[in-house]
Structure formats: structure tokens, C-alpha cells
Records
---
Amino acid sequence: MSSSSDDSKKQLQLRKTEIHDPLDDIFGGVSASGAERSKIDMVARQIFGDSDEFADLIAQLVENMVTIGEARARVSTDLKTIGGLLMNSMHLIKNVMVATSGNKTTSLRRAATLGYSFFELALGVKMAAARKYMRCYEAFLDNTEAIRVFNVGELDILAADHVTDEQVAVILAAKQANEHMTREDVRKMLATLQKQEEALADQKADLDNYEALLEDSKTAQRVAEDEANRLQQQLDATAKLIAEKEAQLQRMDSYYTGRQAGLANLEKDLADKDKEIARLNEERNALLNRKPEVQIKEVETTPAGFKSISESLEKRNAELKQLEDQLVERRAELERLEADRKKEAGAIEAANRVQAAMQEALSSFEQFAGKLSLAQVAVQASDGLGQHEPLIETLAAMMRKQLSEIETGLRNL
């Protein structure tokens, strides 16, 4: 009783659907004479002829058409039977035509034409309707629930290649919840689901793009951090070099101070030598200008005092010349030391300026790296990624600026 009541409800629902949408039942009304075996046999012989080679084909086709005629009153529940038998009949016709005329395109086309003509003349099934039933059979062969709930027109909409199983499942649940859902409602719901999936696909593509952008930013940050670490090591090495140069400069200052003290001693010795030479010159001049004695006595050599003073004067002049040469040499050495000291002091001052500039750039980059990490966490935790695009562009510009400053500092090194 329950099964009869369900069948009656299904038939009533099918008839109500036909009133609102005639395409839902493609076959149309079923007459008692339309499914008669004799009529089907006659039509088959008219199309395929009375030849013995078609006897088995006609017998199988008649059985299939009789079964189809009996099942047409149960379109929704017997879609498997209708679509399957139509497809089986078409395959049978094609196999016989291929066996008779060979596997050629013309044979296949003729078989299809004869098959659709036979379906229309025998049962009133138009070619479009037959194709639709066969397509629905192929698409929903394993989905008995969809065949039970949807009519043929709705199944035809859902049998399209672009319709997914998930979309069919959603529309099936909606149809089960609302039995008054029409074919147009199914079409609209399918269009809505497809638009939602396209929107989801676009969002996923945007998400993939943002993830790729974040990965690129992370890579750039890692590269920048490695470069910053290398720069820090270089700065440490430069600071060590500067410290060594400062120590060397201190040693040079000590040496310079000692040399200056030695120069003062040399100048004092020179002054003393000048005084002694002046005294000796006075003594020599006094000897030269001294009047001779009254007693004249021939001597073969110069007076002892005169010779001693001349030798002493020559010796002192030689020592004076040596001291002057030493003084000139020491002064030249002091000038070279002063020039080297100024050069080293200038190099240390320039290195300190570069060190300070690089330290400032490194400190600024560390602040930027912290901001970039916070921005990455915020973007990854956000649902709407489009709103963070200006932030990402700003961070990218800041990163380019930081890298430019670091490269400038490297060139200055």
C-alpha cells in the first residue's frame, strides 16, 4: 500500500510538473496502442526491411521498445531502463550496420539516422528527446536518488559537463527539502553555485598570489637579513681595523714626540758647537793677527798653537756639518711622520663616519624587519587579503629603500 501511494504521489507530481513545464516529460502522453507489439514490429520492418539478416535485430528492438513503452509511465523511476535500452538499441543498430557495411563514418551516420527515425516512428520519441534520455542515463547511472527526485528536464540541466557532483548533491538536497522546486529554480540555483565557486576560485587565486608575495617577501627578508649579518661582521672587522690603526697612530705620536725631544737636543748641541766654533775662530784670528817676536828664528813648521787651532777648527766645522745634516734629516723625518699621522687620522675619521652610517642603516633595517614580521602575521591571519595590498606595497617600497641604503654604505666602504 505504501509503495502504491508513493507511486501515485510521484505520478501526480509528474503531471503537475507537466502542466507548468511541458519539457519536463519529453515523451509526452502514452496511449495504449502506442506500445503495441504489432505496431512496433511493423515499424521496424518498414525501416530495416524484411530481410533475414535483420530478423534478430528487429526481434531485439521490438522487445526493447515494448519494455520502454511500459516504462514510460514511470519516467522518473525508470530512467535507467529507458536511457539504457535506448542506448542499447542504438548500439545494436550500429553493430549491425558496421557488420553489414564496414566500420565507416557513413555506416555510423546511417545507423544513427535509422535509430533515431525508428525511435520517433515506433514510440514518438524525437531525436533530441532520445539523446537527452541517453545522456541522463550516462550521467546519473549510479545516482538513483537523483533519478528518483529530479524529472528528465532537471536531470538534463544537471547532466552538463561543467556540472560537478558536489553541485548536484547540493541541488538534490534543496529539491528534497522543497518538492515544489521547478526546473527554472534548479537552473538558477546551479548558476548561483557556479558563480559562488568561481568567486571562491578567484579568492583562492588571490590567496595563492598573496601567499606567493609573502613567500617572496620572506625570501627577500632572509636575503636582507643574511646581508645585514654579513655587513655586521664587516662592520666588526672594520671597527677592529680602526682600533688597530688608532693604536698605531698612538705609537706614531709617541715616536714623533720622542723625535721632537731629540731634535731639541740636536738644536742645543748645534748651538753649543756654534759657540765653540766662534771661540776657536776668535783664537785663530788672534793668532793670525798676533805680532811676530823680535827674535827671528827660522822654523820648518807652523807654530804648534796655530796648527792645533786649525785642526780643531776643521774638526769642529766637520762636526757642525754633520750636525746640520742630521738636523735636516730629522726635520724631514718629522715632516714625513706628521704627514703619515694626518693621513692615518683622516682614514680613521672616514672609517668612523662609514661605520656610523652603516650602523644607522642596520638599526633602521632591524626596525623594518620587525614591522615586516608583524605585517606578515596580520596578513596571514586576515580573511580579506585585498585590503592589505597597500600595506604590502608600502613594505616592499621600504625594503627597496633599506637595500638601497645598505648598498650605498657598501660602495662607500
---
Amino acid sequence: MAECNLDITIYGSIQFAEEQIGIVEELKKLGFEAYMASFAAPMTGKTNEEKEKMKLHQKNNIDAIRNY
């Protein structure tokens, strides 16, 4: 069986940062190269209100989507 090198990037709503981290970890356990946005990890454990404030800061001050 031929080896398949597959890189997978998980990119979605920051509201689901915790779930995205779990998916990336599972994919890595299965042998895939898995990535997600670096600005998602700081969102873990935050309330939806805190996440919204952080998203607005990233959007208005960092332009996070262009940096990724």
C-alpha cells in the first residue's frame, strides 16, 4: 500500500476553538499533519462574550485572517 502524505488544516468559527483543537489532536494521532489557526488556541475556556471581544480585537487590530 502506498504511503499518503496529507496535510489537513482545520479552519472554522472561533466559537468552536475547543472542538477544533480536539480534531487536530485526533488527526495527529492518526498520523496526519494537522494544523489550525494559531489565534484559536487563546480562545479556549472563554465565554462566548469573551470570544466575541477577542474576535473583534483580532479583526480590527490584527487583521487575523490576512496573517493566516
---
Amino acid sequence: MLFKSPEELVVKDETINFSKYFNRIKSNWMWIVLITVIFATLAFLKSPISTNTYSATSTLMIDATPPKPISLQNLPNYDPTQKEFYATQYALLRSNVIAAKVIENLDLTNNPDFMGEPKSTHSSLKARIKQWLIDFKQPSDGSVAVAQSLTHTTPSELKALQIFAKSLLITPIDKTQLVMITYTSKDPSLAANIANAVGQAYINYYVDINSETNKKASEWLTSRLTELKQQLNDSEKKLTDYLAKEQLVNTIAVDELANSELINLTNRLAAITDKRVQTEALYTTLRGSRHLSYNQIDAISEISNHPQIRDITNAETDAENVVAELSKRYGPKHEKMLEAESQLAAIRARKDRMLKRLVEGVKKELESNQRQEREIEAEIKKKKEEFQSLAVKKVHYQALQQDVDTNKQLLKTFLERQKATIATEDYKDSIAHFTDYALKAYPSGPNIKKNVLIASIVGLMLSLCALFAIQFFDTTVESSEEFERYFPLFSLGNIPFIKRLAKKKIPIDEDTLSAKEKPMFFEGIRNVRTALNLAITDDQRTVMITSSLAKEGKTTLATNLASSLAQSEKVALVQVDLHNQGTALSAPQGLSEILTGKAMLSDVMAKSNQNNLVMIPAGEPVADPQELLSSPRFTALLNELKQQFGKVIIDTPASLITSDAFIVAKAADVILLTVAANKTKRNDVEQTLHKFNAYELNVDGVVVNKVL
């Protein structure tokens, strides 16, 4: 055989096939149109008797950053650049907060036109039913009662909120900051009043928020100022106590005085150190020259440059010059010579005494310089210690002073903020204002065209949804292609559905088909014949045709397939439904008589309009058909037919109704399964295949019948 085995076929993944839905719509278009027309008609008939309604519209401009004449830093800020901002404002306009304010301000709970209360006793029953429906829609878990107890909302207020929400429409104007508030009511004046009241309630909502924020800010600032004043007093007291404890007046003056004294001592130390170094150098020179004569000491530059020594040295030089001049004119014994020499000797004696005193003075001066240097160093050390102690105190002082300054600045800031808050507490500010008030309400209903259009759309959508739901949950097979998606079987083709003959209990053949129906129907039969001839070998001559359930068209397929095969070879059509004679091949004698020995094969063969086609009817019904079909006579009959005919087509009962088909299948060469499109469920096909597999029989192919 050329049929693909189950191992060679791969079941495709189940995907959505939209053509099935379109086919469903196409086949049920009259129902869709009928339901749509019914809905439209009901809407058309109901609209004239409906109460007239009126709609009024006011317009608000929402601006999160309006120009402010004064700075209100403590009021809430809004960012209009955020996309959620305007969506939030529209939701707020629809909220129960705004609705409750409007209902309260206009006393709508006591307005019969708004509440829809009956004006006569005739409509009281209708009102009670409506109220019962409203109550029925509420959750039954007690959540409503809890909400009412928490929000103190009465049943009439809840009803008013529901009515209000149904009639309110918030419509933003694209690419603007404007939003339209539309309210629909039976009373035109009430519609205009509510449209304006919603906008005003929204404006007042933000005014109240700003006022409440200002009030809370003022209260908080007042309490905070008291705390800050106490903090300032405490910090100032700590600073004063510390200054008194450390006996400090002003750390800045003390710092300057300490710095000045330290600089002065440092300069004095540097000067005395220089002087001590010079004196020490001179004294060291003198000590190193203590064995020299005074004349030699006088030759030392440090000594000779001394002012007193320099003066007396000059006097000595002058006296020596005088003696030298006089010695040129007078003798050593001359009175003037003696006087000049005496004077020179006196100068030299005085110089010697001066040099001696100078050496002793240098020593004393050195000792004095050293003593002063030590005293200044000790004073500097003492001042440094005092300065370090003062620095520690200064750090503590600065911390206390900074605390005082911070508290003063903070107190000043809060005082300024409090003044600004007090100055602006009467300022009324909101993020919205009216651009247009609702001055007049216009008729808005009933809109017959709109109602009819909406009803038509609803009817159309409901019918389509119903069809889609039916199709979605439909487990039948529509075509051979769909069959192969679910089952690993080879499909020989599709047989089209003849709707005109669907409910008539007559066989579909060339005599019952119209001229328009014949080409399409017989084209499907020829496709099945061609696929069958290509799929089987010459030795496979007996072809059994069965179905899962009754009335799937297996007899129609067997009859027309046999007729089509008879165009090229001899064909025998055998009906083995021994439970009843059926309608296709009714005859007084048939297969049952052959198997019971009451007739011969030649006695029951019936000629058809085609020379190559011979038909063997089922014959009279028997009590136990399975016993006859299991007998050797049936096998012998098939072998005899195979010798005489090129093809033997066997029409068997439905497989899920009787077991006859499984008995016949053991003697047949080819097993074909007929599946009725849009009727046979996949579960039925699965059960049929499971039964064949249980008997170790393989279904070789399938033909999908009655395809739309």
C-alpha cells in the first residue's frame, strides 16, 4: 500500500484557523442578520417612548502652575509634564469625593427629578424593582454595610452616587488643558446646575486642600517657633555660663593679645640671641687671647673697633705724632719732649685700664645676655602653654557660639515663614478655573439613530461572539486538511455538502442531484477514486467503507465511489448491514440469504445502470449478523468476488454502534473511514481508531463527507 503509516505522519501543532470562523459566519449569516435586525427593531420601538433627556456642558481649564501674585511655598506643587497628572485630574472629576460635594451642595437626595422617585403610586412597583436590582448588584459579603458604617453614607446617598456617576461624562479636549464636564438629566436646569457644580466642587476641592495645608503649616510653625525660642535661650545660657566659668570676655581680643605678645617675645628673643651670639663670640676671642698683652689685645679687630677703644686709639695716635714731631726738634730732656711723652704715657695707661674694664664688661654682658635669653624662652614657653589652653577653650566657645547663631538663623527663617503664611492664609488658589459655564441644556435623548446603531452593533457582536464561542468549543472536523492536523491518517479527499438533500432520506446519486450540484459533487468522488487507485496495489481489491456513527454518508460514498470505479473496471458493491435493509440497496434477497444458504450469489446480484457495476444488497435482517459475518462462507464469498471483479466495495454499519465492521475488516484489504464534516466529533473518531487498533487493524485512509 502507498498509505502513510502512523509513524510516518506527524501531527501538526494546533493553531488558530481563522478560516473556520469565517466559514461559520458564512454558513450562519442569516441568523446574524436576524439577531441584528431584532435588536435594532427593539431599540427603534423603545426610543419614542423613552423620556426626553437634556445635556449641559461646562468647560474647565486645568493648569498645575497658575501665575501667583504672592509666593506660596508651603502649598502643594504639581508637575503638569507628567503624563499621569491630567489622567489623575480627570479621574478626580469622576470621583465620589466631587460627586458627594455636588450632591450635598445641591441637596440632590431630596430632588425627585434627580433621584427618579415615582410621582404616582402606579410606578412605585417599578421603583421597588429597580431598587431591588441595585441592592442585588451589591456584594453579599457584608462589605457594603462596613463601608456605610465607616463613611456614614446612607442608602439614599449611595443611590444618588450611582445615579450621578451614570449621567456624568468627563471629556478632555485633545492637545489642550481644557476638559468638558457634561451632565445629562431629565430636567434641563438641573443638568446645567450640576455641570457647573461639578466644576466648582473640583475648584473648591483644591482651594480646601490649599487652605488646610496653610492652616496645618501655620499651626506647625507656631509650635515649632516656641521650641526654637527655647532652644535659642538654652544655647545662649550655655554660652554665657561657659564664658563666666572660664573668665573669658572675648576670645577674639584674647586671641589678638596672645598673638601680639607671642610675636613680641619672639622678636625680643631673636634680638637678644643675636646680641648674645656677638658678645659670646667677642668673649670667646678675648678668652682665647688672655695670655696676650694689652697691645696685642688692642690689635684684635673686635676690640679695636669698639667705640671707646677707637677714640682713645685715635688720641694715642695723635700723641705719638706729637712726640715724633717734637723729637725732630728737641732732645729727650727737653721740657716739651717730656711733656709730650708724659701725655702719651697717660693716654696709654688710660687705654690699658679701658681694655681691662672692657674685657670684664664683655664677660658681664655675655652673662646678662644669656640670662635674658633664658628668661625670654621661659616666657615664650609659658605663653605657648597659655595659648594652647586658650585654643581648646576657643573651640568649645565656637561650638556654643555656632549653636547660638544657628538657632538665631533658624528662628529668623521660621518667623519669616510664619509671617508669609499668616499673610497668605486668606488667599484662595486652585489649579483650575472656568472658561465656559453651562448656561443652557440641549436635548440629548432619546437619539433614535444612535440607539438603533448601538443596538445593531450589540446584536451583531453578540451573535458573532456566540458563533465564535460555538466554533471555539466545536470539536468536529470541517475538512480533510483539519482531520490530518489531529490524526495521523491519510485523507483521500473531501465530498461536498448538498444542503438541499440534507434532510431527505434518499441516496445522493446522479438522479437526485441538480445540474448545478453534479459537477462539484462528482469532482469530489473522482478525487477520492484517483487517490484510492494511486494508494493501493492490484492485489488489494476489497475496500471496506465504515464510519464512527450513523448518517455520516458512508453509504452515499460507497455507492458513488463504486459507480465511479465502474467506469474503468468491474466493481461489486456489497452492503453488509444485516441489521436492516437500509434505503440504498433494498431487495427481497441479499447477503443474509447467501450466508444462510438460502440463495446463491448469482441469485442476489443486481445489475445497475452501468454494465460494470453489480450490487449485492444486505437482504433480510437477521438476529445475529456477527455470526454470519464470522463464518467461512463470508470469507469465501469475498474471495469469489475478488476473482470476478476488479474492486469490491463493502458498505458496513457504523463502528461505534455495532462490531460488524471489525469482523468485516479482518477479511478486507483496505479500510476507509467516513467522517461527516461539522458533525462527527474528534472524540468519536479517536474511539473508532482505538477500537480498530485494539483488534490489531489499521484504518488506511479517511474521506471527509458533507464539507461546506
